[in-house]
Amino acid sequence: MIRDMTNTAEHGEEKSARQRLRERRAAAYRTAERVLSRDGARGTLRDRLALLHEAAPQVHDLDEPADLYGDGVVAALEERVAGLLGTEAAAFFPTGTMAQQVALRCWAGRTGNPTVALHALSHPEVWERGAFSAVSELRTVRLTREPRLPTAEEVRAFEEPFGALMLELPLRDAGYVLPSWEELTEVVEAARERDAVVHFDGARLWETTHHFGRPLREIADLADSVYVSFYKSLDGFGGAALAGPKTLVEEARTWRHRYGGAVFQQFPTALAALVGLERELPRLPDYVVHARVVAAALREGFAAAGVPWARVHPEVPHTHEFQVWLPYEADVLSEAAVLQAERTKEMLFAGAWSRGGPGLSYTEVTVSAAGLTWTADDVRGAVVDFAGRVAEVVSR
């Protein structure tokens, strides 16, 4: 019993230490003068309200009545999304989790097959607690676990029927990776050969145009339905949209109500989404281009600093987000990142570090408007400084 109590106390102390580190990281991020991305979601309530006060009049008529159960500004947002994606219609949802469950449930009713083929690292498999099966009577099968999108060969060779193929573009947990345009079209064709519908988990689809070299409408046209997020990539308050054929979207509205998604008023979220479409969407290709500059400078900086092993994944980022892997424990790298920000007011790595294996950790890097001011020399210099902080933490 005494041993159990000691173990519990030690676990509590470790948890408390990590909580303190998270709090320090949050404070360091708020006070840092230079970061690669300034995420609005980490701002204060005053910051978020100020955004609407300043920007909302530029994207919608604020003298019209407030929305009620999806009309007004919410309907205007839906029309804007359908126009951008080139679909017949779009429906606003409070969350992407709900939007995708509804979409695939509707498709299951049409195809007669509730099986959804997807990647083992796709968002519903990793982050949604089995919601597809627990809530929506869907069954998932995993086409691959490889850190890339499924191939046409894997789709054709899969040993059992499925009614829908779900593709996450980009695949976040594999490093925000994308296939080539040719690979994507071949995968879609392979699904069609099996009489399966294709649904894009396009939470971050907005980011993919530079990599594919195609406009959003052409990318979305490959799929039977598409989900997009308004806070990922666009820095909105939340919310999502399901876009596709009018008949599917109308059925989805019915299921949205049944799932509890018919919210009384949603004008702050809808307005923030319109602001994101107006301000952030046109700048995303610039962020992708500069992310490649930053990624190259990170590799060069780690080599110059003498770090024994380092990897940027993908080596040339597919979007403006990517992973950095280093041969240290996550707590060491987290402490070094916070120290750098506290002492220099520059925060090179603002995200959490996660354990990727024994003595190996990774973090996600996003390059947005704040990062455009960083030159390659700035990044290389910050990497050398960061490596020095790591050595300091290791030597303690």
From TrEMBL:
<keyword id="KW-0663">Pyridoxal phosphate</keyword>
<protein>
    <submittedName>
        <fullName>Threonine aldolase</fullName>
    </submittedName>
</protein>
<feature type="domain" description="Aromatic amino acid beta-eliminating lyase/threonine aldolase">
    <location>
        <begin position="70"/>
        <end position="299"/>
    </location>
</feature>
<comment type="similarity">
    <text>Belongs to the threonine aldolase family.</text>
</comment>
<feature type="region of interest" description="Disordered">
    <location>
        <begin position="1"/>
        <end position="23"/>
    </location>
</feature>
<dbReference type="InterPro" id="IPR015422">
    <property type="entry name" value="PyrdxlP-dep_Trfase_small"/>
</dbReference>
<dbReference type="Pfam" id="PF01212">
    <property type="entry name" value="Beta_elim_lyase"/>
</dbReference>
<dbReference type="InterPro" id="IPR015424">
    <property type="entry name" value="PyrdxlP-dep_Trfase"/>
</dbReference>
<dbReference type="InterPro" id="IPR001597">
    <property type="entry name" value="ArAA_b-elim_lyase/Thr_aldolase"/>
</dbReference>
<dbReference type="InterPro" id="IPR015421">
    <property type="entry name" value="PyrdxlP-dep_Trfase_major"/>
</dbReference>
